[in-house]
Structures
1.
Amino acid sequence: MLILQFPLWWFSMPAIMKGWVDRVYANGFAYGVGEHSDARWGDRYGEGTLAGKRAMLIVTVGGWESHYAARGINGPIEDILFPIQHGILHFPGFAVLPPQVIYRSDRMDDERFTELRNQLAQRLDGLAHTPPIPFRRQNGGDYEIPALTLRADLAPGQSGFGVHRE
């Protein structure tokens, strides 16, 4: 189980954490594995070297939850975290669990801290049984190969990050 915990900085992870990803996710480990042909584009997006392992984000945010809602000024938190969850975690094979997002993390009294600590403890205790985000697998038949575009009959008329979830 990999847990990446970080404050949301400029709509992403801090540079030092991205640097860790850049150094650890080496060719032959996190990418560049498996058959690359007109029929298959490697083992990735749920099928990589980290398949069978789980990952989750714990993200602290200064803004209100409403700021990161579907109609919030910052856009949905699911969209903001998509490049990390889908591109950094799902790409090499992780089953990605829904994130634990802590809003208004800079405005916390003792009562709220205790409540959030207890919620996180329960969440961590249940990680083995938490269903992952149902991202589509690259080689599962949902994407046209070699174009790697979602089949026209799946999520017709829709676009955006959401179409890459089953």
Note: The chain has one domain: 2-134.
2.
Amino acid sequence: MKKSILVVDDEQDIVEILEFNLKTKGFQVQVAYSAEEALMKMRNNTFDLLLLDVMMPGMSGFDLAKRLKGSVPIIFITAKDAEDDMLAGFGLGADDYIAKPFSLREVQARVNAVLHRTMEPEKNSKDYLRYHGMEMDLVAKTLVVDGTQVPLTKTEFALLSLLLRHVGKVFTRQQLINIIWPPDVIVTDRTVDVNINRIRKKVGVYSANIITRQGFGYSFDRIEKE
């Protein structure tokens, strides 16, 4: 069955280019030129992915993402490529972020990657994150590993849930600091490393899934247990 994508952008040229190219790749594509129009279309249709601009007249892409509350995967596409905007997008549960101008090959690769992550049998919900025998309850703030509840600090829980929510995505230490810690708290790269190492010790066999990307940062990757 074809995957359905909703492209939301107020720039007609961008919308037409994305619509044409995604259709040629076999996707079902609908378009909206505002967040308000997107909401109307989502009342009557189910989409597997949103390609969503941030800066639009009326409701912004960030405001739309807040309303959706993680109910559909989102890739933000915007001319704003500042670090703060990227972090804000991830803070709202975005699955990826592409800055204009972009290449169509990049868009295609990121669309495929997000759909691959989110369409698997263990698809996460807004209240739970699961990977095999590891389950995080985002409401109760608990972690269960192979049937045993594992205590995490508030910081450890926030770090692990961020990595698990964005499987395969590499976060730099500075990005993790900006997302997880309050802005008035002084945090060093070493603090991040210490917390990651503590998490690895607590998740047991799943520690190998928390990957150190030398020169970049950390990611949670899918590695099957032996």
Note: The chain has a mean pLDDT of 86.
3.
Amino acid sequence: MAALEVEGLTKDYGEVLANDDVTFAVEEGEVFGYLGPNGAGKTTTIRTLMGFQSPTSGGATVLGHDITDESDLIAAKRRIGYLPAHPSFDETVTGREILDLHASIKGGERRDELLETFDPPLDRKVREYSTGNVQKLGLVQAFMHDPDLVVMDEPTSGLDPLMQRAFNEFVEVERDRGLTVFLSSHVLSEVRRVCDRVGILRSGRLVTTERIEDLLHRTGKFVRVRVAGDVGPSAFDLDGVHDVSCSTTDGGAPDGGTSEGGAADREATTSEPADGGVADREPTDGGAADAPLVDGPVTECTFTFTGNVNDLIARLGERTVVDLDVEEAPLEEVFMRFYGDHDA
């Protein structure tokens, strides 16, 4: 059974068509990422699903309850946790008083457990909270009543990297317990770890829904490579290479020193292997990870790669590689490459 079903959802503000015939479903026990750049219409969808505004046309059900039926949706909300994009609380009271209020309305059986993980300063007034502490307080209130479905809009906004990791680990555990999570994000790396499937929204229209593994395979990797010599984009004329940009500088080390970005500074990085690709590598003494001495020009090239990693390695093997970084392509690159021909 689907925990959340959206059918032809449209929200037209007149000058802006924020959601345009959006249709998708989120299954029970699934973590579903709703992806898109800022302004794509993600928050509009969430606010409509939560009953804060009415759709222009179409509709949806949440835990089997019709979002356009106020009394029906109220019954569903007892089993829903919600975190808005910019959580706002009464700034004149403490975090503890905020949670006491929420507990009196919807329950708080998991409150103490959540406070061990997110730990906002409960005895300080909310006006003294940093953005990150407000977000942590919002996360506690969203999960404290042990809901069946949690809807979150940019849940890691304002959190430091350690707390983002704690959040990701928490969501993984909750998914294993059977919780359904619907979260929006514009950062692909944020959903890579926790999401089972994603929906891609662009200019109010749902471009696709895909399993996260399939999406990551299609996005490709961002490659930055520095090679000895003066070379141009044609040196990387290879299936799967897109948008090559090269610049050449004098990276020589005529006195026997290492070139800029040499072995002393270099950290080899690779992402998860693509089709038949190679796994992550660590530098080894005298191995390929050691940057060679270069006397003469060095060319830095950047590009997005969606092909077979082995083909790329073979091509790089024809050059003297000074430095190589491979990382996940930004979500914006995904939109430009795969969805640029869709109507806005």
Note: The chain has two domains: 2-218, 221-270+290-328.
4.
Amino acid sequence: MKLENIKKELNQIKENDNFRTVKGLRMLSATHGIDSTGKNYTVFSSNNYLGLTHEKSVIEAGKIALDYGSGSTGSRLTSGGTFELSELEKNLAYFKHTEAALAFNTGYMTNLGVLYALAGKNSVIFSDQLNHASIIDGCKISGSKAVIYRHNDMNHLQSLLESTPVPEGGLFLVTDGVFSMDGDIANLPALIELKKKYSFCLIVDDAHAVGVIGKSGRGTAEYYGIESGIDIQIGTLSKALASEGGYAATSKEIRDYLVNKSRPFIFSTSLPPSVAAAANQALDLLQANGKDYMAKLKENTALMRKLLEEGGLPLVNGSTPIIPILTGSSKKALDFAQRCLSRGIMLSAIRPPTVSEGTSRIRLTVTAAHTTEEIEKSAQIIKETWSEL
């Protein structure tokens, strides 16, 4: 874009009620934060699904690792990898029931790094219509032909697979496990069956699934009781695992290939020891107490959904702690969020291009750390705000 056109473009974004700004927030606990004026908010806009960001042992693990330096100063292939990061990868592989795991700087970079390394201009990638932006961008930078199938529509996907010749670079299929904007779950059993017939490489992004679904929080595969068939499980450390970074859990051979071929891994400065140590401690807590965390998260989610449904709010059906309240217009989503904010409830107004035109929404996320009182009080404010609008 020419620089002289930036102002015009920004004005157009503002006119469409899709202008975004960065607002400061300091989290005092897993569910409460303050802005720069000191006003306190109950937060229902984070992905801190288990509330582990403020768990004392997680914070202490990060503090201890700071003794080994505040940063890593370079990529793992040039400056060496921290012991904490190597330990985390081993534990992630054990947790996800894979041979190996490889850490990246963010979940976004993980999707870019995996698709860039494995797929190419002679490959075809089948991608769910509602996949995360990182998957969409990963398909683009890979140079592959991207074939988009209607959201969770297995009949449409099969028809596309049947009509697509197998290219020299192979077939890939990538999907979110839990979809970040609707909160619904991929039809993994059907995908596994299609893989048996069409022999594609199956990649599942479990960023919003780990610590959210499955009896012990292992994600989509555990939710369906599936132990094999997924070639690569993408994950993040920044949501339920309360830290920062991403990872690919896979076979040892694919991990070795990514180390040698994935440019986002090769040329990125490594995560520091404190970040890896905090994530590892959060993972330990999840593995030790997964069923308890899942039970609490499910209980809180059911309560919030029940209260909002009683208020007649237009919720997207689902069972995960991602609860979308459809507003349609961007303006209504902004008004909704701002009115709740003025009453101490922080929600996310999701607008295009994150979602398609006409499907703007409030994205409310419940965590295991929210108390019953916080949920009941906030739900009442949300219902009153909806009635006003």
Note: The first strand starts at residue 26 and ends at 27.
